[in-house]
Design a protein that fits this description.
Ammonium transporter fold; mainly alpha; globular
Amino acid sequence: MSTSRRGLLTTGALATGALMIGGRLRPAHAATLAEIKARKFMVVATEDDFKPFEFIKDGKPTSIGAASGAVAGLVAITPACNILTPGWAIVLGILAGSVCALAIDLKFKLGFDDSLDVVGIHLVGGLLGTLYIGIFGSGIGLIDTGSFKQLTVQAIAGFGIGIYSFGLAWIIGTVIQKTMGFRITNEDEVAGVDTIVHGEEGYALETV
């Protein structure tokens, strides 16, 4: 499932790249750049970061780690795919793979529920890609212009949207908790959500 998800995300990234014309790039040019960056990004983020990280930490790499590395790469490249050169895209892949691999462990240290690693991959990876434009963006970043203007714009946008999203999520979550309840009890969870909530078995595991 994780491998299929990775393939679907790659296809989506290429389709998105074809639509990001930006007034300057022809569709074919945009799609080509997106393909080069997305694919190189995926390889670097997956092979050079998540797998070695898992090998050092747990003694063996996993397919989930490889898929997570690919997703982290696609998440980080999304805001930056039409403004980076392939070389800087590869550097972003290395950074995103490393940073997201470390960020995933935050849920164990801080104790929040994040089974799909939304915080570690999507929040951290997306914010990294957004800020990266302000430094390495072609013609607009700090490296090319010597100005912090674009980095400031990217920071305000990234953190502003983060605060806005967190605030709304907190309000919605609080309303749900006070009305229907955010999650079932530990006892019901152990007994089985399908049985307790829906009155049926989700999986038939009897030996035939």
